[in-house]
């Protein structure tokens, strides 16, 4: 089970985070889960610019402990271009 405590934030910041969350709920981008489900993999982080606009982000660093990284070589660009040189269509 992965659970993170929420970050400390001011009341004003918390209201702004709630506003962003409600907008995402209305657009069906996110959904509420049941009261017995614990899926708190991120803490919401509010980024505010100088012009007063804000954006909601998630801190997913705790999720890194539960993911596997697959390492494989990247294709070489000259080889890829050589294969594409005679192509009529690229899809």
Automatic annotation (TrEMBL):
Transmembrane segments: none annotated. InterPro entries: DNA/RNA_pol_sf, Rev_trsase/Diguanyl_cyclase, RNA-dir_DNA_polymerase. It comes from the Eukaryota. PANTHER family: REVERSE TRANSCRIPTASE DOMAIN-CONTAINING PROTEIN, TRANSPOSON TY3-I GAG-POL POLYPROTEIN. This is Reverse transcriptase domain-containing protein.
